Amino acid sequence: MNALLTCSGVDAGYVPGCPVLRDVNITLEAGQVLALLGPNGAGKTTLMLTIAGLQAPLAGSIGLGGVPVRPGSPRAAVKAGLVLVPDDRSLFKELTVAENLRLASRRGSTTTETIFEYFPELKRRVKVTAGNLSGGEQQMLAIGRALMQDPKVLLVDELSMGLAPVIVEKLLPVIRKVADDTGAAVVLVEQHVMLALEIADTAIVLAHGDVALHGDAKALAADETQIERAYLGQATHS
């Protein structure tokens, strides 16, 4: 199969010559889920912003389906099919669930009913403003808004931010189902490591600005010691 998302030798950061993250290489095919892991400050969000076009890479290139994505252009990235769910969710808090979804629609194949199939809770809260939803419901809506844009690559930054583990356990299988149903490639930043590895195909652990570990998610889940070493920046590349 042909790669859908490629990051080749990407350095990411905010000051030229001072990368936060160095030499990141990612190859994701349609329907694959990548768990992007690592301690706080490892550069996960910086990488997500770079892939999403909100930050130009300091080096290297990002491609979608073999076509280079214009560096540092969020509009070009969205048009190409790269859609980010940011860690702050970026909802219109004064608008209802229905209004938030409608504003995000690109008139593609995804409808509000499709979103309600993934998140039945939102259908019951369709007339409630986003600001009055629970944290879990807000995250469902943020993901739903992204799906309304028919992404080829879905980027979900810090899915579990502020959520109870029981909610995370409910949301992560939906991410897996979205990838399976739509063929979108997914990059998921998640602090609940073992839960993320359960639904991912592959995983990367970032530490101290480098890729400390990269491999099959199930194989990594079977060796927690290796992951712990990677979080400390002690693991070798795989």
TrEMBL record:
- Alphabetized Pfam families for the sequence: ABC_tran (PF00005)
Mind listing the UniProt keywords for this protein, alphabetically? Amino-acid transport, ATP-binding, Nucleotide-binding, Transport
Q: Which domain of life is it from?
A: Bacteria
Q: Listed GO molecular functions?
A: ATP binding; ATP hydrolysis activity; branched-chain amino acid transmembrane transporter activity
Q: Which InterPro entries match?
A: AAA+_ATPase (IPR003593), ABC_transporter-like_ATP-bd (IPR003439), ABC_transporter-like_CS (IPR017871), BCAA_Transport_ATP-bd_LivF (IPR052156), P-loop_NTPase (IPR027417)
- Write out the GO biological process terms: L-amino acid transport
* UniProt-listed SUPFAM superfamilies: P-loop containing nucleoside triphosphate hydrolases
Q: CDD domains this protein is in? A: ABC_TM1139_LivF_branched
Q: Which residues form the ABC transporter domain?
A: 5-233
The record's PANTHER family line, in alphabetical order, gives:
HIGH-AFFINITY BRANCHED-CHAIN AMINO ACID TRANSPORT ATP-BINDING PROTEIN LIVF
For this entry, the protein name equals: ABC transporter ATP-binding protein
Organism lineage reads as: Bacteria, Bacillati, Actinomycetota, Actinomycetes, Streptosporangiales
